[in-house]
Design a protein that fits this description.
The protein is about 25% helix and about 35% strand. By secondary structure, it is α+β, with helices and mostly antiparallel strands. It has a domain of about 120 residues: Protein Transport Mog1p, Chain A, CATH 3.40.1000.10. The longest helix has 23 residues. It is elongated. The N and C termini lie far apart (about 95 Å). About 15% of the residues are buried.
């Protein structure tokens, strides 16, 4: 007659595994679709998110903005009113301009851009625009425009060959300074 002890031991182990699995399944926290598992970020955590970014400060026009380290300040053509941060060559990357125009006058000039409405970052409201790139500089292009403290000037920030997410992150670091 065969020995039944190994079969009984294996059966007991299987039953114990099923009991443990069933108990865990019954009492584990239930996560519903749409539950937000992330906790809101504090100001410090948001700043830490950009801790490895570079900071550009324009004392003449009283603002600062952060940008990723892979963007390089182009010294050869940048000044207080036009700043270029290249990523893949001249004309690609991040551009910050101070433009002596009215908002209405500037929107006529960029009529081929699609308006994305207004959005607020750090208590600064921006008018957002978007367009697809060109054959020469392909990709997605994003632009934000707002009136400068000086009523005759605009601050215009353009990011090309990038993503809307990165553009929003960069805008979220913009701050006016005294």
């Amino acid at each position: 007659m065969p020995n039944k002890k190994p079969a009984i031991a294996i059966g007991t182990i299987i039953i114990l595994i099923l009991i443990i699995w069933g108990t865990y399944s019954l009492f584990k926290p239930q996560i519903q679709d749409g539950d937000n598992l992330q906790t809101p970020q504090t100001q410090e955590e948001e700043e830490d998110e950009f801790a490895d970014w570079e900071v550009y400060q324009n004392k003449e026009y009283g603002f600062k903005i952060s940008y990723p380290k892979n963007y390089f300040y182009n010294y050869s053509i940048s000044n207080d009113e036009f700043v270029l941060f290249d990523t893949e060559g001249v004309g690609t990357g991040l551009i910050i301009e101070i433009i002596e125009k009215s908002f209405e006058g500037r929107t006529v000039e960029i009529e081929n851009w699609q308006s994305r409405g207004e959005k607020e970052f750090n208590n600064v409201i921006w008018n957002l625009f978007y367009k697809s790139g060109t054959e020469m500089v392909p990709g997605e292009w994003y632009k934000a425009i707002r009136q400068h403290k000086d009523e005759n000037k605009l601050i215009e920030i353009t990011l090309n060959r990038s993503t809307e997410e990165l553009f929003n992150q960069i805008l979220s670091t913009f701050k006016f300074i005294d």
